[in-house]
Recover the amino acids of this structure.
């Protein structure tokens, strides 16, 4: 679940909402935005070639939705030092959850790693609610494999 206001995108957890923000659960929720707003949002994700306009709204919503994790990472990382994990692919090693039950890290392991055993990018991990401190801990313990850009 994401909150969108202009070109700012934040990951929302639970039923948290922020006034004046569009709450999007999937690409179809972006259909309330105009094609101009979708173009600005897509171009804010810094694609290699910015688009001038989209052919149709359905395609625009799909392409913008694919770029949401990048936008979340940019919104959270504005003015901050870039993480060592940025741009890297993360793959879990254990098949069962090694974290203490009922902890936030245990829930995140179930939500992210057990649903994506093939791995995900660092930006997607952060967008799904993962924390850098948990990722660093799991990497030190040898529970995560990191491959380059």
């Amino acid at each position: 679940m994401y909150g969108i206001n202009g070109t700012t995108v934040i990951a929302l957890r639970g039923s948290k909402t922020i006034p004046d923000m569009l709450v999007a659960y999937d690409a179809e929720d972006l259909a309330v935005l105009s094609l101009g707003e979708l173009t600005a949002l897509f171009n804010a994700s810094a694609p290699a070639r910015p688009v001038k306009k989209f052919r149709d709204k359905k395609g625009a919503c799909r392409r913008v939705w694919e770029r949401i994790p990048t936008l979340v990472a940019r919104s959270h990382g504005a003015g901050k030092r870039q993480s060592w994990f940025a741009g890297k692919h993360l793959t879990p090693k254990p098949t069962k959850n090694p974290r203490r039950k009922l902890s936030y890290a245990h829930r995140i392991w179930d939500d992210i790693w057990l649903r994506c055993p093939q791995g995900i990018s660092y930006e997607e991990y952060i967008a799904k609610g993962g924390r850098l401190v948990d990722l660093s801990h799991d990497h030190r313990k040898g529970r995560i494999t990191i491959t380059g850009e």
Notes: Helices lie at 35-44, 57-77, 104-113, 122-127, 132-140. The chain has a mean pLDDT of 81.
